[in-house]
């Protein structure tokens, strides 16, 4: 048995000896560092981790990467292609997962990136074979554009791979997840197809233009388009797939394509700028350049890298020299050169970007496809530039006489001819006018009297007078807008311009001119005039027209003492809730129904207008006695109370009505309207569904409150409501556990207003619903931001108060669902606070609503616990998770003792499974005693006043900015 104990020692010594031998032997003296392959990584760049070897002969010996057992082995690989020298890549892959991994090793044949400016790499087969240190040999995949091998890595295995290279240069070597590589290839294939399609259509279009328009610049542009198409197809590997080209043949195509592209650029620049026009030497230079480029194409057939390198240098020269040439000719007033400046500037930028790419300054694999797409865009701009010049100002061949020019201008304008032969009293009108009016051919070819019969009766005398004046004075012009009757009886508007033609005897022999159909313009003009003073929904007069008619009514009142016009303003009560619950479309239908009901009550001399959303105004002139006016207002109130039925649903409406009588003492219309508005506001504030008659005493009654109501309606739109956060502290360790969100109004004139100054107004006016939703949404957004950045355990929470109006609305569930959908927060950390008295107003309804709120993921807190008269049976049914004890049970008496009920309330809350928050903790002794009583949390001035969002964040966790960014990145 003693030798058994020494077996582990012997085994470890052998492993150490083998490892030392592997490190000291031959090539690859040190073991490889394996590339760890992970499941969730789509691609890994292998070039930084490979070892390159160039050896004499066709064999190589390498050391493998250590496996899980730590042993470094030695393998020998023989080249498939014998030769005096061989090139190799050695790298290792490690699978540390528990699953078998399939990966693709990809080495592209050609990459524009870092291909080189002189003697560039035009692509070739990169990897001949690949040998693993263990397992199955990687299977080579069918991929015409790259050398692709499928390698399978067993769980926990480390495989060393030896790749035999065709050439010592390999531009890229990546390890791809198969699906990710397939997705990448498919996405690039779609892009390649789009670019090739656009390039092909562009080349075909320029060729067609060359056939249609025989200008020299068009064949040059078409040739450039075909050259770009050939270059793009070669670079994208399209022609290789179509014609099954080998890698060596692709090198020739690629070099020839670059040489042809450089040649066509010279041809286009020469043809477009018409350089032979400026100096004969330009033609000689271009001819010599083209001969050189032609020889370059021949050179590319025998030595593709040299041909491509010279072509790239030539393209750079064309771009730079062409730019200076275009600028020079532009300064000498050559229009063609001016048009080419933007396009050639873009081409110059493209050339430099391509230079940075092929020299390796830009290395992103998206650069090459983007450059070729940009080349298509440049050719497209060249095509537009050519067409702009070739077709600008063209259209007529040969000289044109004055009469023909006038006829062509008339036809181009689309005007109709109107001609009156005065001697024969015959009027001719173009057939287009008869077609527009639906008349028979020749209906408007009649005498002047018959032609006047087709006009609107209101236009006949005016037009007859114009004709008589023209004939009598033998000078002047006619420019009138006329209405002509169509076959179906309606009228179309025409603008007629005419002038007399004087004969040899000095008399008017003809009156000739043009007619234009202006019906659409007139209709639009009338519509604009109507819309300017009428409401778009109901068609009633708007506020502007109402004030205009009110001004007229004031004028009547000053002239006739017996006339007592009255202003009646009515505002629909709780109409916003109808819009929220039933929908805006039903709300609009209700407004239309109200307008129709009110219209039926009025007489022709009265005015009904829609002044704002749910506010209507009436100027009553048909009644003069105050009693009858008041009775009419009551009729309006009772009419509006009749239910409106929509989709088997009855909607009951009430209105707050303000009434003001106008007399001679009212100086301005705005003052009279303001009196009625003041009365209406009083009616709404006192409960709605009532009529309030204006009295002078109302002007001094609660004007400040009215102003606050008006300002509060716009406070949310103006972002005047600020949210502050009062800390809620965990008594166990005195850390901040959460906050209560409190609204403060930053009034532009009155400064900061406490909730007690504007919350009651919001409750009365119904604005508390919008205000509560605003506070809830802002608090949830801030809470989500804190939780994403800070990641505290337990997470921070925020409490938001819910009013009675919010709880009684059926839409509260939808509001909470929308807030939680827009703002992602941890469940139960957005707590809604409801007072005990509020939930006990309707316990059955409240229990159902609270259960649905809990299902949405919001927390529930029972506020002011102990101040109401709750039944413990009901409290057990409510799904509250937190109880807030009112401060009157927390604060000590003058003798320093706490209320006796405090301990009982805490115990009862714990028995119900709720946490306890004590309000009104103002001193350290309060906090100590509350913790001893079992309160989990406390809130009060002892732990801080309400803070801004940024101050609250610093109070939660004052971590440095670097940590915040790191947390956000995770």
Automatic annotation (TrEMBL):
Domain annotation GGDEF: ranges: 563-696
Keywords annotated in UniProt: Membrane, Transmembrane, Transmembrane helix
Record-annotated membrane-spanning stretches: 190-211, 218-240, 252-273, 285-302, 308-330, 337-362, 368-387
The keyword Membrane belongs to this UniProt entry's keyword annotation: yes
Alphabetical list of SUPFAM superfamilies matching this protein: EAL domain-like (SSF141868), Nucleotide cyclase (SSF55073), PYP-like sensor domain (PAS domain) (SSF55785)
InterPro entries in the cross-refs: Biofilm_reg_signaling, EAL_dom, EAL_sf, GGDEF_dom, Nucleotide_cyclase, PAC, PAS, PAS-assoc_C
Domain of life: Bacteria
CDD domains: EAL, GGDEF, PAS
Ranges where the PAC domain occurs: 478-530
Domain spans labelled EAL: 705-960
Residue ranges annotated for the PAS domain, each copy included: 402-474
Name listed for the protein in its UniProt record: Diguanylate cyclase
